[in-house]
User: What shape does this take?
Amino acid sequence: MTAGQQRALAELLPRFELPYSPLRADLDLLFGRRAPREVEIGFGAGEALLARAAARPAVDHLGIEVHRPGIGRLLLGLEQLDLGNVRVSGHDAVEVLRDQLEQGSLARVLLLFPDPWPKARHHKRRIVTPAFATLVASRLASGGRFQLATDWAPYAEQMRAVLDAEPALASATPGGFAPRPADRPLTRFEQRGERLGHAVYDLEYSRR
Assistant: This one.
């Protein structure tokens, strides 16, 4: 962690943080307004989240990330760009969705390049499971979107199988993968994958 990231955690996190609580969060109070809301799970260094928040100031954005240096980097970006429509949680994403967010409250959930846990004995650690799909669907408003991306082909197939089986979700591209969304900037992680020859698989579902 850099000195700048440490400063951001100490000075900026209190301003932007959604602290974890087992009780429902008052997002209107947290953001100081009522607006459409999106959640990105595992935002990494925050490039995509910052780009979306800057491009769409009328939307509130909640980023969830447990990696502290990544949170610090995002906070520095929020300070540099003077963005007020982003809040951050450093807690477990499943618990945040389950405990703090209301059913039907989100316009979009994004899960971009989650850890694929490639070894078979670690597959149980993957975040995309039937229970997770049901949870995300319950937090989406009618017509709300769930967008995912991975550069690990076996995980892409598992994601598609799990999400296709969730009755509350409908695929935007039944039987296939979605085109890369126009508002998903090319992150450093994705650029590295492209240099290594990794294909990227996008999926998009909507709440029925």
About this structure: The chain is about 40% helix and 20% strand.
